[in-house]
Amino acid sequence: MPEIHFNKKKGSQLKLFTPGPVYVPKRILDEMSKPNDTHRSLAYREMHQLVEEGLKKLLYTSNECLIFTSSATGIMEACVRNLLKNDEKGLFLSIGAFGDRWHQIGVTNGKISIKEGVEWGNAIKADLVNELFTKDQYDVVFVQANETSTGVYNPLEEIVPIMKDHNALVCVDATSSMAGIKVEVDKLGIDVCLASVQKCFTIPPGLAVCSISQAAIDKAKEVNNRGYYFDFLELLKKNKVHETPNTPPIPQIRALAAQLDYILNQEGLENRFKRHTQLGEFTRKWAVERGFEMFPEKGYESNTVSTIKNNIEIDISKMVSTLMDRGYKIVNGYGDLKNKTFRIGHMGEITLKELKEMLEVLTGIISSMK
Ligand SMILES: Cc1ncc(COP(=O)(O)O)c(C=O)c1O
Predict the structure, then answer these.
(1) Which atom, in ligand 1's list, is nearest to the CA of 144?
(2) Which of 18, 67, 69, 71 to mutate to test the pocket of ligand 1 (most atoms within 8 A of CB)?
(3) For residue 1, is pLDDT > 70?
């Protein structure tokens, strides 16, 4: 195995331009190696509280913020189990693989799960939401902010208020955009906004977070069989004293507390969002100049992951593996989009300079393959 992929002493030597997990800088890894107290200690509670307060600022919300020992999929399942009664209708708005996954979670939990969507590459717009709610009533809506498979960002400002006007609870999966693209939870009225930390937060995997509105908390009180591990009410009970019901990954929480402080007080929220916009714009310009087309419809492209069409019919697997031998990793298309697209992640702590360096190497590889 080439040293560049894995080094016994140093770990992976690849620079990740992936849509998560992402490249984690040393300052975050160092944070994780500091000594810990138990999860029932004052030291832990102080750290947990810092995360809660940081998340509220990041999400522009006064809603409670929870920490889950799971990846994002755990909170996606929690939303289904805690917020949807068995005789109620859940609307799963899918624009790609992760929307489909949320619908499957609804189905496998025995809930009435209606999937609606648009052709992959497109976004959910106001017209569709208006049409759906004119025909029927839904109790809870489940929708992605950023669909990581297609690289489409749904216009939440346009669609969430319509769902709220129809008295639906709204759960937003912001897994690949939270801490990279601004979401104003209270302004939009989002009831649950969730993400895992191995993407834009730039933390190694093992933890997920969400905000939860009072309306969602009140609803959970009326829902039976919420399950045990992901019961919102048990998590909230412990969150009141800045703890979790079970043993959490304390090093990840320590890193998240430090990273939120970095995001809010060193880089600054607006600067962070602006940097991600620049990374997205640069990648799209690079792709088009190389003769590629973007997979997402114009105006709805994500600024954290670029899904690029393989319209020039390049051998994507070869391109990806050649780039890995040069020390960088990008990824093939997700699921059905494999070989039809490839994806460049530009989230987390990636700088424009680093992105330019990687794209220069990739340009050389593509030229040599044509
Ligand atoms: C939009 C979206 N939702 C959900 C998930 C699942 O996240 P996790 O692997 O943290 O459960 C992902 C993972 O890539 C994602 O991109």
Answers:
(1) 1
(2) 71
(3) no
Q: Where are the alpha helices (DSSP H) in 230-351?
A: 232-239, 250-261, 269-289, 316-325
Where are the domains positioned within the chain? 15-24+269-369, 27-264
CA gap 277, 173 in Å, rounded = 20
**Whether CATH 1.10.260.40 fits 27-264:** no
Q: Determine if ligand 1 sits within 6 Å of the CB of residue 98.
A: yes
**Is residue 303 lining ligand 1, measured as CB closer than 6 Å?**
no
What are 139-158's pLDDT values in tens digits? 999 999 999 999 999 999 99
The finding on whether 71 has its CB within 6 A of some atom of ligand 1 is yes
Q: Specify the range with the lowest mean pLDDT, choosing from 4-13, 58-67, 123-132, 283-292.
A: 4-13
The reply to whether ligand 1 has any atom less than 6 angstroms from the CB of 77 is no
Q: Is pLDDT at 195 greater than 60 in this prediction?
A: yes
Which residues have C-beta within 8 Å of that of residue 120, sequence separation ≥ 6?
95, 96, 149, 150, 336, 337
